[in-house]
Design brief:
The structure is a single chain. Helix content is about 35%, strand content about 20%. It contains 4 helices and 6 strands, in the order βαβαβαββαβ. The chain has a 6-stranded mixed beta sheet with strand order 2-1-3-4-5-6, sandwiched between helices. The termini are far apart.
Length: about 140
């Protein structure tokens, strides 16, 4: 704890994104921001393997993925293991809001991604979230 700031509970992140450029940008940006990106995957099947075998604090999941299963399926798997989820997608779905903390709508600025993760971290620590980015919807 430094100068009254609580230690964050989110440090290990799984990125589930099938757009390579978005995935690469998010991985690079979050690593530079001090997060450990456990893996970056593009399918539900691969995400499921990582969720089952790695220590993860947060899953960032796009809803529309390549293949038959979606980011909602990823969120269900993570939710069942007690792992927090944020959707980062162009298609925010109220049908899955019981599985995630919130949804950041694409396209978004990297600072909005970082702020959304910080808000999720605050909620997980039982704190009141700060100001929400315009593109972020809290569930």
């Amino acid at each position: 704890m430094l100068f009254g700031h609580d230690k964050r509970v989110i440090s290990k992140i799984l990125i589930v994104e099938d757009e390579p450029l978005v995935a690469f940008d998010n991985e690079h940006f979050l690593t530079q921001a001090g997060y450990e990106v456990v893996d970056t995957v593009d399918s539900c099947a691969h995400a499921e393997l990582v969720i089952r075998h790695a220590t993860i604090d947060l899953v960032l999941a796009d809803i529309k993925l390549t293949g038959k299963r979606s980011g909602i399926d990823v969120a269900q798997i993570a939710h069942d293991k007690g792992i927090a989820v944020l959707f980062v997608t162009a298609f925010c779905s109220d049908d899955a809001k019981h599985l995630a903390i919130g949804c950041l709508s694409k396209p978004y600025a990297q600072r909005d991604l970082l702020t959304s993760i910080e808000i999720a971290d605050s909620i997980l620590r039982g704190k009141k979230p700060g100001r929400l980015p315009r593109a972020f919807k809290l569930f």
